[in-house]
Design brief:
Elements lengths: L16 H4 L2 E6 L4 H11 L4 E7 L18 E5 L12 E4 L6 H6 L1 H22 L2 E7 L26 H21 L3 E6 L2 E2 L10 H10 L4 E4 L5 E3 L1 E2 H13 L6 E3 L4 E3 H12 L5 E4 L14 H7 L7 H16 L6
Parallel strand pairs: 1-2, 1-4, 2-3, 4-5, 5-6, 6-11, 7-10, 8-13
Antiparallel strand pairs: 9-12
Helix pairs in contact: 2-7, 4-5, 6-8, 6-10, 8-10
The structure holds nicotinamide-adenine-dinucleotide and uridine-5'-diphosphate (UDP) (2 copies).
One uridine-5'-diphosphate (UDP) binds next to helix 6 and strand 8.
Length: 336
């Protein structure tokens, strides 16, 4: 007798006329800061069905409350270190704590999330033939010896330091993505995200922009970690989401830097927050954490040329949106 081979796509319905123009998209980490803004944007397109898988380690249902109950939206409590069996066309794989205090809290879990979590999402992509995008990070460049950072730079990362669970975890995640691409023909996209800020960041997550804004609103001193001359380049979240979607929809695997090249020292950032939000607040110098990168600025030539993308929101224009969101959440009125 003959053995019938199972269809290559496990869900034959996905090939039916009904589904053809629809896109079912999985967003891991979709209850987090960037993920929830990405979900908002994807849901604007009526042809998209969005599934979020998140374990709520640093994210919350609250970030997605406007979509809960929507017929094109589904929220699953799921840890990506466990296998996930669903049928989707695209995977935006964001699940991973991004703030140093959270990723250092349980470093072994951070590595598992990056390595086993990414392996599982690649296994899923392979089984269903989905395209997968990984949100990697500028941290793969470590404390960079090349400035600004281009994608061809291999980085300067401490393999045994307190940040390594995140930096090396993401480096392995990138390697896995390319190995699945070369070995199994999976369609991959890698974004190297630089510091991103905006509404819905965790108020006490320890990242510099959220710290300074919360401190300014609470009349507490802004804590600049020594020496204060270290630099970062901050991208507003709507620009980031636009870049991620362009990368997913485009033809390039990446890695591609997505970030805002406007570079500031932490002292300059503190002065800007003070000027815009609370001119009476003090700025103090506190001790830094180990392995803090001294400078960081993306070279975005590739994003501009290949994706037609560049950031639109300047730091001074983005900070007030975040201030407004933090005021509401902290219950601090603007002084007249
Ligand atoms: P976030 O902490 O707000 O969001 C991460 C989300 O992933 C949270 O909802 C969290 O609950 C979820 N998560 C964590 N571990 C999980 C697990 N094991 N299983 C399922 N869900 C899990 O962070 P974010 O700023 O929105 O960052 C999103 C992505 O972008 C991350 O991959 C991060 O590494 C990357 N990134 C962010 C920045 C930035 O400046 N925000 C910079 C570089 C890279
Ligand atoms: N996986 C998953 N969902 C799927 C298919 C696979 O989570 O739909 C997981 C699977 O549990 C495995 C990983 O992805 O741990 C890698 O899968 P792959 O098929 O590439 O490797 P193998 O299972 O052969 O080790
Ligand atoms: N930083 C600071 N004060 C704070 C928190 C952070 O001066 O209250 C500095 C930190 O030393 C680093 C920069 O701000 O040089 C960015 O830190 P963050 O944790 O926001 O992101 P990452 O280090 O991952 O870029």
């Amino acid at each position: 007798h003959t053995v019938t081979k199972p269809p290559p796509n496990p869900s034959p319905l996905r090939n039916s006329k009904f589904f053809q123009s629809n896109m079912r998209i999985l967003v891991t980490g979709g209850a987090g800061f960037i993920g929830s803004h990405l979900v908002d944007k994807l849901m604007e397109n009526e042809k998209n069905e969005v599934i979020v898988a998140d374990n709520y380690f640093t994210g919350s249902k609250d970030n997605l409350r406007k979509w809960i109950g929507h017929p094109r939206f589904e929220l699953i409590r799921h840890d990506v270190t466990e296998p996930l069996l669903i049928e989707v066309d695209q995977i935006y794989h964001l699940a991973c704590p991004a703030s140093p205090i959270f990723y250092k809290y349980n470093p072994v879990k951070t590595i598992k999330t990056n390595v086993i979590g990414t392996l599982n999402m690649l296994g899923l992509a392979k089984r269903v033939g989905a395209r997968i995008l990984l949100t990697s990070t500028s941290e793969v460049y470590g404390d960079p010896l090349v400035h600004p950072q281009t994608e061809s730079y291999w980085g300067n990362v401490n393999p045994i330091g307190v940040r390594s669970c995140y930096d090396e975890g993401k480096r392995v995640a990138e390697t896995l993505m390319f190995d699945y691409h070369r070995q199994h023909g999976i369609e991959i996209r890698i974004a190297r995200i630089f510091n991103t800020y905006g509404p819905r960041m965790n108020i006490d997550d320890g990242r510099v922009v959220s710290n300074f804004i919360a401190q300014a609103l609470r009349d507490e001193p802004l804590t600049v970690q020594a020496p204060g001359t270290q630099t970062r380049s901050f991208c507003y979240v709507s620009d980031m989401v636009d870049g991620l979607i362009r990368l997913m929809e485009g033809e390039n695997t990446g890695p591609i830097n997505i970030g805002n090249p406007g570079e500031f020292t932490m002292l300059e950032l503190a002065e800007t927050v003070k000027e815009l939000i609370n001119p009476n607040v003090k700025i103090i110098m506190v001790e830094n954490t180990p392995d803090d990168p001294r400078q960081r600025k993306p070279d975005i030539t590739k994003a501009t040329e290949l994706l037609g993308w560049e950031p639109k929101v300047k730091l001074r224009d983005g900070l007030p949106f975040m201030e407004e969101d933090f005021r509401q959440r902290l219950g601090v009125q603007k002084k007249k």
